[in-house]
Specification:
Helix content: 55-70%
Largest sheet: none
Number of strands: 0
Shape: elongated
Structural class: mainly alpha
């Protein structure tokens, strides 16, 4: 039931935008998605299972955005411009999506589903296993690895090692997530560091 699953995740994300996660009601999420509450429970097992799936979806969407930024600027764009675009995407994504910000930084507030950051499982027996969530370092590592894979054929010889450059840019972008500054600053900083 992929369509129902996406509708439920969309409804849960919209509900999170209207109020804190502890006040989100499963019956309201199901109604907003146009499915029964039983369908919601069959799909996710519990509110915690729904939260974990929602956070995983947003983390995956962030990573797909990193890939788009690295390849979508222009196939002919210089690697440092593509890395700058990925850094800007990271900052923008975290500013616009509190779940991405929380997964990137490890900082969860009372409005977010805090149970997802613990290793204690609250899924009832027989319910689907919750999806694993990356720790902040793991998510940055995934972004770095994708950057290395997408840029390795274009990386200039004699430049700093590509994995090191990608790691530095990912961590530089994360610093702008934690201590916000204009997006243009992160792009300019990446260009300067990689010059």
């Amino acid at each position: 039931m992929p369509a129902a699953r996406e509708s439920l995740l969309d409804a849960a994300f919209a509900a999170l935008g209207r109020g804190p996660w502890p006040r989100v009601k499963m019956s309201e999420v199901a109604a907003a998605a146009g499915v029964s509450r039983q369908t919601l429970y069959n799909e996710f097992g519990s509110k915690d299972g729904l939260a974990r799936a929602l956070v995983r979806r947003e983390a995956d969407a962030y990573l797909r955005g990193v890939e788009r930024a690295l390849s979508g600027v222009s196939g002919a764009a210089a690697p440092r411009e593509r890395l700058a675009a990925a850094a800007v995407w990271t900052v923008r994504s975290a500013a616009e999506n509190p779940l991405v910000r929380a997964v990137l930084t490890g900082c969860w507030n009372e409005r977010l589903p805090t149970s997802v950051r613990t290793s204690v499982r609250t899924t009832p027996p027989g319910a689907p296993e919750p999806e694993p969530l990356p720790a902040p370092g793991e998510l940055i590592g995934e972004a770095r690895d994708r950057a290395v894979r997408l840029l390795e054929g274009d990386w200039p010889p004699g430049a700093v090692e590509l994995p090191l450059a990608c790691e530095a840019v990912a961590r530089l972008a994360l610093s702008y997530v934690v201590a916000p500054a204009p997006e243009a600053d992160v792009a300019r900083m990446v260009r300067t560091v990689l010059a």
